[in-house]
Each structure stands twice: as structure tokens, then as C-alpha cells.
Amino acid sequence: MNASKIVLIASLCMLSSALVLAKSGAQKEKNGYSKEYRQYSITEALKSNEAKARLTPNIGLYFGLGNIGGKELIAGFAQENHKNALKHFDSIKSACDEAFVITLAKIQQKVQEAGGNSAVNIVSLNSNSTQEYECLVRALDVKVTLKASFAK
Length: 152
Hints:
This protein is of the alpha+beta class. It is 36% helix and 34% strand.
């Protein structure tokens, strides 16, 4: 396949993504691209092969504000991850799930480096749900931002 065909296909993919978001009532960013917040199941994402491969069972994950699992709180922080939604994903949900799992893996790494053994009070940036995480879907990528605290 020559370069002009690849560019044409990529352009059509970007255009179709933008049209889907525009039809769904998505908001516009300052740069003119559409954006939309979507909610996806935490449980489903944690059952994925990606979660099984990336997350360590040695660092506990407690979702929802006030859920510290009876542990001593150390400090709070936020972590985010972007995924190119047009690359190797069969759906926006799968891109969001992978961004969510990678964000959790980064949280686990920070907890371990801080000497903790759990991440507690894990919530999305704009939601305190214990059942769903929030994914920002834009024309070219998706982003998951989580807030959490370290605990011992």
C-alpha cells in the first residue's frame, strides 16, 4: 500500500471518529475537536487480559471515596494515561479499558515506590463512582485520569 493511500485511510478514520462524536452530542474543545466523557465498568475492565497481565495482586486497589480498607493514609495524587484511539483498537471502549488498566498499573507502581501496599480512594477525575470509571473520548485519542491515595 503506498503512502497516499495510507494518508487517505487515516484521514477518513479521523473524519469518521469526529462525525460519530459530533452526532453523539459531544462538546467541542478549543481546537475545534469534539470531546465526550463516557462511563465504563470497572469490573469488566479488571477482568480483561490486559488487567491480568499488567496489574499486580500485591498492591491492593480500593475504589470510591472513603474506602481505605482500614489502612493508614499516606498521601494523595492523580495519574492519567492517553491512548491513540485509532491505533489497533476495535472499539473506543477497548481503548478506554486499556488506558484505565495502564493508569492503575502506574498507580500501583507509585504506591510501591512510596512504600505503600494499597491504592485507596480511587476515583475518576469528575466522578466518585465505585462501579464505573470515566474516559474522555476525543477525536484522536482517549484519556483516563484517576485520583488515589497511598496506604499501608
